[in-house]
Amino acid sequence: KPSFSRNNSDEESNARLALLSLTRKNPVFIHSIALLDVSGKNILDTFDEHKGQSEGNFAYFIRPLQTGLPYASNILFQDNEASIYFSSPVKTPSGETIGVLRVEYHATVIQSIIRSIDPGNPDTLISLVDTNTYLRAGYTGSDRDELFKSYKDLTDLEVAALQAENRLPPGPKENAIGEPDELTIAGLDNLQQKPFFNTHSESLDSESINTGVFLETQPWVALIRQSTKVYLGPVQEQNRTTILISLILIILSVAAGYLASRILTSPLL
Which partner for 227 in 30, 123, 210, 217 could form a disulfide, CB atoms 3.0-4.6 Å apart? Predict the structure, then answer.
């Protein structure tokens, strides 16, 4: 229906109720669900303030129209909020695309997923890293200030460009850059050739062994760090046991030699 006949119609009420029912599937993390027309205009939204705004310049609108397939975005930062968008084309029974269904999640949903698989070992950290910006999308470390910050010491120009694309948090550079870690960046860049690499972890306060797995549908990598104290612990324990056994054997050998010499020399004496 044209917009003037949709307003306050039964169809609009039913569509809104359908969108609201979808938000109840995950009310903690779903921020809003919307219908966008073919121009990108938000014509119906569970978050009333978004209704009427244009979203036609975003990839989550453009890509479903181009490919006819669902789309998942990277983390986008708008109005000091970090969000992830999932979208899918809306088609008529004849196959004509007439709009896009868009779901906006709070990006902290990733943190919730990462926390759910956290082994609970204080000597092991899991991070989900955007390989384009080196942004921590998820992080099990205790320093929550590092979440949504980049491992890379980006230049002011790079920060400004990525902020303009909503790929980094807005504001001063400190909002977007965490503790720079060039060794981690080099390790991630060479992960396919060298699946394990060593760095120093400030969060673990020790040297760490690192590895990672690339996600299939997003340019992200799941990075796992473990303190070398834990990683080498069994080896060090084995070394201590070996040294202790060797010392005991030496002492026994010396004692046995002394006793043997006394036994052999006593008749002569």
Answer: 123
> Strand 97-106 vs strand 81-91: parallel, antiparallel, or unpaired?
antiparallel
Distance separating alpha carbons of residues 5 and 25, to the nearest angstrom: 30
C-beta of residue 36 within 8 angstroms of C-beta of residue 3: no
Identify the three-state secondary structure at position 39.
Answer: coil
Kindly report whether the global pTM for this prediction surpasses the value 0.85: no
Helices within 37-146 (DSSP H only): 59-67, 108-116
**pLDDT tens sequence for the chain (269 residues):** 455 446 667 777 888 888 888 888 888 899 999 999 999 999 999 988 888 999 999 999 999 999 999 999 989 998 778 999 999 999 999 989 999 999 999 998 888 888 887 777 778 888 899 999 999 998 888 777 788 999 999 999 999 999 999 999 999 998 899 888 899 999 999 999 999 998 888 777 888 889 888 988 888 999 988 888 765 556 555 655 565 665 555 555 555 555 655 555 555 54
**DSSP structure string for 135-175:** BEEEE-SS-GGGTT-BSS---HHHHHHHHHTT-S-SSSGGG
Closest CA to 228 of 201, 258, 253, 255: 201
